[in-house]
Design goal:
This protein folds into three domains: 88 residues, Uridine Diphospho-n-acetylenolpyruvylglucosamine Reductase, domain 2 (2-Layer Sandwich); 110 residues, 2-Layer Sandwich (Uridine Diphospho-n-acetylenolpyruvylglucosamine Reductase, domain 3); 85 residues, Uridine Diphospho-n-acetylenolpyruvylglucosamine Reductase, domain 1 (Alpha-Beta Complex). 25% of the residues lie in helices and 25% in strands. The strands form six sheets. A five-stranded antiparallel sheet has the order 6-7-13-11-12. A four-stranded mixed sheet has the order 1-2-5-3, with helices on one face. It binds flavin-adenine dinucleotide. Flavin-adenine dinucleotide (FAD) binds next to strand 3, helix 4, strand 9, strand 13 and strand 15.
Amino acid sequence: MSSACAPIEYAPFDERLIPCVQALLINPIRENVRGSTLTTFAIGGTLRAVVTVETADELSKVVALLSSEGQGCRVLGNGSNILCGDSPVEGWVLKLGTGFRKVESLSRGVLEVSGSVPLMSFARKVSDEGLSGLEFAAGIPATIGGAVFMNAGAHGDEICSRIVEVRGVLADGSSVVWQRDELPWRYRHAGLPTGCVVTSVRLSLVEGDRATISERCAHNLAERKARQPLALPSAGSIFKNPSPELPAGMLLERIGMKGVTIGGAMISEMHANWIVNPKREATAQDVLALIEACKAKALAEEGIVLEPEVRLWM
Ligand code: FAD
């Protein structure tokens, strides 16, 4: 199972494989795409090849071919929790296309949701239909696949508590289905194996009163807008909370990190656990330097080790 969020080493990109991979795909491979255009941080250098797959069959074949050639794949959801490096990033980038935007109702409240369905609009839709369980997701700009991989959560709730089963494709191209209890869910961590692509998830939501559900969503969103710098490019919270009693934002504010700036990156004045890129001029190095500054100060002044929540693609 993958561990936390240290950057993974990838073999150098082998461009000779482009025609072989292209032959397996409906969509054209996009080469040399700026990471800044695919992430909410708006930071990052070149991604060598972005492969958008439309079917599980395409996905399995591409993944199997690349792994047999010793090439690694990075999975990109909505790019809302990724800091992409400044230099060209090794590894192939896989993205689930519109073929993975399906929602199937299996019975009242039990839904099969494909990996590239946007979490926010899906959460709004089910809430409007009187299904409760995703009110916490209002304002989280994730895909379903990314939300499952990260075990996204807010307001004391997290997506794993609604999951019945997770379907995916492993690094060798084989399909896999996990029942909820077969995965080691933790705070912001599903424990999925490295290279696994989540293709769909079965969720169980509960019938509730529409007005109450909408009110909860609106309340959560309003709270978010009041506390978080949503108008600026960011990746949301940079660090995991050291404990429920001591959120990282509270700790970082206490040790005076609000407003600290390195290059184009700044610790938000609104929320000390958010690094923002106000002028879209920050480099990944600027953000990494701020991360290191926060970690060093938290350790020196409070004896606390901060662990990044953001995934580093270096
Ligand atoms: P990405 O950022 O694209 O990827 C994140 C990780 O998931 C990567 O390791 C990637 O390889 C992996 N991944 C993505 N898709 C798949 C897939 N289909 N299969 C396997 N692995 C995959 N997070 C919270 O938990 N709570 C919040 O309240 C919250 N608020 C946010 C608010 C803002 C404004 C922003 C910018 C971010 C916020 N985040 C929050 C962070 C982020 O939205 C979540 O971590 C989210 O789950 C990431 O989903 P994504 O689709 O963007 O994944």
